[in-house]
Fold these 2 entries.
Entry 1:
Amino acid sequence: MMDPQRTDPREDARAADLARRFTEVYGRAPDGVWRAPGRVNLLGEHTDYNDGFVLPFALDRAAMVAVRLRRTGEPGQDTVELASTYAPDGKGLSCERFSLPGLAAGDVGGWGAYPAGVVHVLDGTGEAAVPGFEMLLDSTVPVGAGLSSSHAVEVATIVALNDLLDLGLEPTAMARLTQRAENEFVGAPTGIMDQSASLMGRADGALFLDCRTLESRVVPLPLAEHGLIVLVIDTKVSHSHADGGYAARRASCERGASALGAVSLRDVPSGADLTVLDEETGRRVRHVLTENARVLEAVERLGSGDLHGVGELLSASHASLRDDYEVSCPELDLAVEAAMGAGALGARMTGGGFGGAAIALVPTAEEGRVRDAVQRGFADSGLWAPEIFSVLPSTGARRM
Ligand code: ADP
Ligand code: MG
């Protein structure tokens, strides 16, 4: 395994650039620069809200924030000023601002809701009195591709405030707080996986996370050593049915668990008799039980260095998500089938589904073939060109 603390010279250069840019924008140097990666989920989909197992990894694409706390007596002590290099017109900055006293959900729109949510949970839980601050954000996590660009923003914010205010929060505490920020302030009913991966990821490792206890363990994923890459195929299909579909799946799981006399599906053994459930609920439950088992199997295989063996688990996961859980879509199925036909060892949709991205585990030598096959598949179906790029497991959030 590579040194988990190893720093990437390109990221150091990015951090220095960001600090310079901050000084131009705000007229003073930042107190520091922090980095929080996006994530991709290798395996364990729709298991997080069932107290189950997930296996994400932190990406070599990250949000970086330069932050400066406002000092007592300075003008704007009650105000947070935010700027992002991600602007709708592709140039300039996208700016947001909000004032701290009485900050409540719904007060802050746009992307400012993510940092504001973090401020709100820190203040609201009595964790910290947060003073005004200035932030400049620059992220290499693609927005809306299912790689959790939003959590990267939240996590970058909380690690920066944790350091600057000397809060001494552990990664698991920060994961819980950012989850609350997202649930209570932004209003998205998301689980705990994304923040955890961003906070606790390691270079050349995946994070095996128990979503019930938040216990986690890094599992080796030395892709390059095994001649493998992970390709992300962003179908660019927006998750238009995601909200209703997600809520319906959660409700099915709760119904299934209670009909089986369990607190959550985590407590249902994988061989349980599902014939007591109606047909649809039975399939939903079967996905969750088999997916948890696949994560455990993948952890075993990775532990013994069998990276190739994880491929078939990815493909089995996709079939289960498509047929039992019914959260795939034709474009995701097409991406998976084309990748498999061109030599991928395994492929599956990743993220909540109904659009977004697929991943494929691919021998490095087959990368070109897989890329071509997926592009051709989309073109032959009269579809737009998907975005395809490779990702590597990288270190979790930290100060630069
Ligand atoms: P994702 O799957 O990428 O997390 P979301 O829809 O959950 O997709 O989050 C995307 C949102 O996160 C954007 O609409 C924006 O509000 C915020 N966001 C992410 N990255 C940036 C950035 N670099 N600058 C400003 N806002 C960002
Ligand atoms: Mg998101």
Entry 2:
Amino acid sequence: MPTPTNAYAATAPDAPMAPFSFERRDPQASDVAIDILYCGVCHSDLHTAKGEWEGTLYPCVPGHEIVGRVVAVGDAVTRFKVGDIAGVGCMVGSCGHCPSCDDGEEQYCETTGFVGTYNGPDTVMGGHTFGGYSDHIVVDEGFVLKVTHDEGDLAAVAPLLCAGITTYSPLRHWKVGPGQKVGIVGLGGLGHMGVKIAAAMGAEVYVFSTSPGKRDDAIRLGAKDLIVSKDADAMATHANSFDFILNTVAAAHDLDQFLALLKRDGTMTLVGVPETPHPSPSVGNLVFRRRALAGSLIGGIAETQEMLDFCKEHGLTSDIEMIAIQDIETAYDRMVKSDVKYRFVIDMQSLKAA
Ligand code: NAP
Ligand code: ZN
């Protein structure tokens, strides 16, 4: 029997999130059924729910930073049993046989594209997928992660499933490590995980921020300093000195001010996906020092497990502010104002009161 599921959904771009119920599929042979304990609030949830990106399917139940307890498994499931703590991130499926899927980079699936945890096609129930702002989810075992952090840390583990992997993957891909000077642009959900992870990888980390008041936090999180990006003199003292910059900003902005800080052969990788395009950067900033401007999308499932294990080993979780689901619109408003320290996480117990 399908499971009645309670959730919060947006029914239109300008409609506030409100209670919504639907049914999750019965676990199929390779499925894991999870009662959701916590779900992080990613800026992508806001972009999608508010229709800032094209293609939002309504009703929209966001949420792709999910931690919960396994309550049922299909006959063919081998890696999970009832009672286990499990995580689900941004993907719940992919084609499984294209070159990217073969390489464990399911996020770049070349045939069907990855199936999003929300706003993707639901091939079993029809319609589209519903995410983690809900009390229950059913996911193919191949897209479920093992969580080994202490149970007391689970709310702060949830954001690792997107903010953690989205920063870990490019830091690994561009081989960040000891002896390197690394910049993180934007100290929000992604940015604060980027600081923690890059510091744990041994790099010297600097934060670029529009919020001078975040300096003490940046240093506490592992940065050497915070550079206010609007302060041209402070920026100029770091010209041509960075090996790698990870840009997490969720709004269109001037990329040249950061490209100019890269060394010869340095790279700036964009992970923020603003609603409107960035102004085109200057070609000169790229060609004269053979600098690169790149992008990166979340991370594959195997790499997500590697990231969770890395975070466990290094004692890393997210700095969170727990909210009830009824407060989601206030959380979105604060997120738009860069007022989040540093990730909102929904306590799914609050759904029961909805
Ligand atoms: P967030 O928590 O809202 O953090 C974004 C930070 O960017 C803010 O805290 C702020 O930091 C800075 N910022 C905001 N507006 C700015 C502006 N106008 N100019 C300069 N800086 C500004 O968001 P998030 O959840 O980290 O997500 C960041 C972006 O990444 C979003 O666009 C999201 O959709 C995207 N994303 C991409 C992937 C991927 O796979 N590529 C995955 C997840 C999310 P300061 O106060 O320090 O300036
Ligand atoms: Zn996300």
